[in-house]
Amino acid sequence: MLRAAGPRRLLSLASWLLRPQSNCIKTSKYNIVTFLPVNLFEQFQEVANTYFLFLLILQLIPQISSLSWFTTIVPLVLVLTITAVKDATDDYFRHKSDNQVNNRQSQVLISGVLRQEQWMNVRVGDIIKLENNQFVAADLLLLSSSEPHGLCYIETAELDGETNMKVRQAIPVTSELGDTSKLALFDGEVICEPPNNKLDKFGGTLYWKENKYPLSNQNMLLRGCVLRNTEWCFGLVIFAGPDTKLMQNSGRTKFKRTSIDRLMNTLVLWIFGFLVCMGVILAIGNAIWEHEVGVCFQIYLPWDEGVHSAFFSGFLSFWSYIIILNTVVPISLYVSVEVIRLGHSYFINWDKKMYCAKRRTPAEARTTTLNEELGQVEYIFSDKTGTLTQNIMVFSKCSVNGHSYGDVQDVLGHKAELGERPEPVDFSFNPLADPRFQFWDPSLLEAVKLGDPHVHEFFRLLSLCHTVMSEEKSEGELFYKAQSPDEGALVTAARNFGFVFRSRTPKTITVHELGRAITYQLLAILDFNNIRKRMSVIVRSPEGKIRLYCKGADTILLERLHPTNQDLTNVTTDHLNEYAGEGLRTLVLAYKDLEESYYEDWSERLHRASGAPEAREDRLARLYDEVEHDMMLLGATAIEDKLQQGVPETIAILTLANIKIWVLTGDKQETAVNIGYSCKMLTDDMTEVFVITGHTVLEVREELRKAREKMMDASRSMGNGFSYQEKLSSTKLTSVLEAIAGEYALVINGHSLAHALEADMEVEFLETACACKAVICCRVTPLQKAQVVELVKKYKKAVTLAIGDGANDVSMIKTAHIGVGISGQEGIQAVLASDYSFSQFKFLQRLLLVHGRWSYLRMCKFLCYFFYKNFAFTMVHFWFGFFCGFSAQTVYDQYFITLYNIVYTSLPVLAMGVFDQDVPEQRSMEYPKLYEPGQLNLLFNKREFFICIAQGIYTSVLMFFIPYGVFADATRDDGAQLADYQSFAVTVATSLVIVVSVQIGLDTGFWTAINHFFIWGSLAAYFAILFAMHSDGLFQMFPNQFRFVGNAQNTLAQPTVWLTIALTTVVCVMPVVAFRFLKLDLKPELSDTVRYTQLVRKKQKTQHRCMRRVGRVGSRRSGYAFSHQEGFGELIMSGKNMRLSSLALSGFAARPSASWIETLRKKKGGEGSTACSPSGAADKTLKGSRRTRCWDAREPTSR
Length: 1199
Known about the structure:
- The protein is α+β, with helices and mostly antiparallel strands.
- The protein has 43 helices and 33 strands.
- The strands form 6 sheets. A 9-stranded mixed sheet has the order 14-33-32-31-15-27-30-29-28, with helices on both faces.
- Helix 32 runs antiparallel to helix 37 (1055-1082).
- The longest helix is centred in the last third of the chain and has 39 residues, at 843-881.
- The N and C termini lie far apart (84 Å).
- The relative contact order is 0.07.
- Belongs to the cation transport ATPase (P-type) (TC 3.A.3) family. Type IV subfamily.
- ATP binds at residues 383-385, 487, 528, 551, 585, 665-667, 779, 785, 808-809.
- Its cofactor is Mg(2+).
């Protein structure tokens, strides 16, 4: 219960209002007190950070420390600090946004006086005054407004993503409370529902003056709305702060990690286990050696103080080796990963091809931690309004009395193609025409001017049958404010064709018909709703004639026509089918003349039904249905909801990349389905589109079951080579459904989705949805959007991306692995909650196929190389342990150990991780199949990790034993023995640096000046530092620190050493080169094939240019003949020079490689993953393409 009491109206609202209700919101994660402990707790959830902290503690123990403690603490503190600063910066902006909202000013009625208060100080029960264009501060009960009958107009873009205006109305008893003196005496009580996230429902009762008044959503102004076209209004605060419906629909800020991060956590644990095993082996070796051999040398090699047995010596040796061998996972790995991710983020921010000049909006990477996950997306969940569409409706075509208008025709009367449009229709005859309106068929205007009665009646209906409000700021300058953009488009069309809606009052509508002002008496409005799917008005003309005008969905209106309309109905239906095939939104128009006596009787019954205390809605619906029968058909309209530029192409390309796109929208089903056809998600070629509209659990379950049965029956009838039972016995149901023949789509409404998402039905829903090529969820709440995303994350284990532009998309954006905000017309809530933002949906294609794929490729290559080089570096210590009495002696100079990962090998791998490419960006967009390895996680997984480790161990074995074997018998130039510890250390270190430098040269696929500089510069830096460290000067200054004095100069002056280094390098690198050569020749990947075709095209262009230079001008035949070179004909006959389409090329590459990609995909599908891509069709297309030459007309090449 909510009661007005006292000057501030501090109220109680049921039991949940016992606590103070603050309007302050909080989206940040930290504050000054909690930042350090909470942030450190989050960072130490990373297994690697905990691992390095443990090593640091070990290094602080003198008895076991073989390396200085600062070698670990400095990089650890650096990593923690960099991450903390980044997190603090992100949270600072969240605090800034919260403060900006909480400190907005609002007028609150206190003790009968309006006072300015900050939003955060508004409380439940306060009465607030709002003025035009102000945001609503909390969820309010509308009490009164400046408009007649307590009406006000709001824009709900922040809630449901729709920019069109909606009407709200105060209950009649409070609509007269227009001044503060009356409102100060208001002492009503409100009993209502507790806080919830249902945006379209509200239930409550106002008790005032011993009467009770029902309250509904039509009486509420929700936080996030904006007051429009209303001078002022007053409202009573019902819900505040976190209890508002806007905040109830906002998901929590979640800490997002990539799949590579999670894999690395697992790998670090495995490496730590491997490290312990090596430590145990070496510790056992130490104990045995000390027991058997070392005891004999106590005079020369006494045990350390406190060591009294070989067993205890082995125990200490274990910890010493743990410290020495910890470089298998150096902390520099995590610093490098953050640097690479930062570089990738800047590339996104700097991409001019993702910059929208119209809005002056660049793409923005709002996080640096998810870039490589952009290359692994399998599901995209998209909002519709403002994301796929511009939310701009355009009157495109119409059918009047069986004649279709709107097709653009050329001078011969044929339908003109795109790009051949003539000038638009000239509306200069009409001074009230909207100059922005364009129509391309002049015959409709001619019919109006010739006085065609059907056309006149058609536009008269459009100018009368609506709820649009007109505002005339200056003479002849009209502005229409419509509840839906559809209505605005229809009224604007009528306006331009000479039937101008000018003004309205509650009882009249004034229209200028071809320059003549006519005022119609408005007798009744039979409003639109989702069940009726139509709207009607009853008007009385100046001549006294009463007529009903109706517009609505064809499925509803065509059933209500008079039987004499049958022929016209058939023709109009054909036009409707044609319009729907083009993805246009259609409405049917009809009218009916009413007798005066009938209308009087019907009006009286309508008045009684309106005041009925019970079953009011049902009684009104029956009366509406009665009068809306036996109507006369006028025609139909077709409206285009303009898609954003490039949406159909983007969806097509992403589908070819095996990315599944689901549309989750708060819009009605008809609108969403029409947009589905417009953006080519739905097509007429689909086998069937299933529509789930059940209102109960049983109905929804039955509809889903029937959909699955139809898919399986169709699959059996098309003959897939094996029966349903065989499939069912061999794999899971999900995989069976995904293997069905035909293309299907699923459309489900919000009330049905609520049942489908229940625990006992969610798997059935997911199985059915994943078997469909397209899924559209209509009338869904923001929370349902998040639940759908969570469902796919839970069962499919796939990377999800959510994209939207309104506050209603925030919860979905936060739930998905990756959230993308469209910075459009609907506020910045989605952008603030997102990980990436840009201004148009089409940029998503470039974000995923170029930046995402490259980021994934670079990160995987970086990690593979990093683990390889560190195992090669560290495992040498392990082999050396068997030859140094397991004494924890290091092979290398301690400064080499310190600088190896920081200086000698850090920059080349960073350059590869930041700049590397396998194919140019144009090819990434042209061949979407290149995206699939990321979805299948092929480039870095446990298998690839073990291959890298094996290569590193192999390299370490050769790195140690080749120099060891050479040094055993080698002598210097002067005949002295070459073998000594320091010379051996320098030789192994030099071999290591050269081998890993050659290896990264082999791994680099895209060479830049930076790559060259870093690789050769690192080698030069190694030799410069080596000679400096071994110089006499440093030894004289720090004799205890630099003990390798003169060693580098002496060792590297020996030819034997250089031959040893060369031999080691060749033996380490040659197997890798041979393997890659054979793999490229025998089993190339798609990227290899794309690169090959690109090289062939370049060669052809070069040959063509040479041909032009040497060919004689006088004879084309001679020039043509002499342009051929030896082997060119063979190249043509082989087909290797053919320019293949992306689909065909993916199959061409699949000659050796599609089999392994498809095998993995099937294997993955068997584990429950989705495989809804048309790759199978691609393979079939390819088989035909091998028999015919597939030239691509987009880039002709002279041959």
